[in-house]
Design goal:
This protein is an all-beta fold and about 230 residues long. It has no helices and 17 strands. It is about 0% helix and about 40% strand. The strands form six sheets. The protein has a four-stranded antiparallel beta sheet with strand order 14-13-16-17, with no helix packed on it. The chain has a three-stranded antiparallel beta sheet with strand order 5-6-9, with no helix packed on it.
Length: about 230
């Protein structure tokens, strides 16, 4: 059945109605004095999936992962039964399931670590689409300090995109202007920038990068001149 939410429909007498934005709903054909009740559907996807590495055994590589998310605003007209968390490390992923009362979960993972995680909700009809993986927000508060033949650029680490862990999947691209030279830094809040022209004033912008793509550039830093 096609999605009837938020659509204009007509009864047998030609009277138009706008359907509600969520299931279930009922409509009455006043011309024939009949009512129609929409069937239940799968839920919408969970949203705002945040992933944090809360512990990391550097010897074994085992990570403790904490995930939380928001329940779907539309349950499809049938109560949520449970949620499934799937890693994006391969097409099958590794699945964890929690009850409908929970919108968070903590578990441990052995290497190799996945790039991210998606969450689906299940009701009596079936499972929702997976939650959306998103690009990071732009870094903020970018500043620069000039030194002998180089510049140090600093920034505040932004929100790193729904569904992604931070350490293994996020890098930063720093761009110098004028000239457009770039350098890349791993997960961090500062980087050295070499190869600039002494005596030239520069500003810098920073983008955060995850597997879904690049953030928008940050606002420019203060102007500095390497010497």
């Amino acid at each position: 059945m096609s999605d009837l939410r938020g659509k204009t429909v007509y009864d047998s007498g030609g009277t138009s109605y706008t359907t509600p934005s969520s299931y279930p709903f009922s409509l009455k054909d006043n011309f024939l004095n009949r009512s129609f009740t929409s069937p239940a559907t799968v839920p919408d996807a969970p949203t705002e999936v945040r992933v944090n590495v809360t512990a990391w055994n550097y010897g074994s590589g085992v990570q403790t992962i904490s995930i939380n998310w928001k329940a779907p605003t539309n349950n499809g007209g049938s109560a949520i039964i449970d949620y499934t968390i799937r890693s994006t490390i391969n097409s099958n992923g590794i699945e964890y399931t929690t009850t409908a009362n929970n919108t968070s979960m903590t578990f441990t993972r052995n290497p190799p670590w996945p790039e991210g995680y998606v969450v689906t909700a299940r009701n009596s009809v079936g499972s929702s689409p997976p939650s959306i993986l998103t690009v990071p927000d732009p870094p903020t508060n970018v500043s620069a300090t000039a030194g002998a033949g180089k510049v140090t650029v600093f920034w505040n680490i932004p929100k790193l995109g729904y569904g992604y862990t931070e350490v293994a999947t996020v890098t930063f691209i720093i761009t110098a202007n004028p000239g457009g030279l770039t350098t890349t830094a791993p997960y961090s809040s500062a980087a050295y920038f070499n190869g600039l022209t002494n005596g030239t004033a520069y500003t810098f912008t920073v983008m955060a990068v995850n597997p879904s793509g690049n953030s928008a550039p940050s606002s420019p830093s203060n102007s500095v001149t390497p010497s």
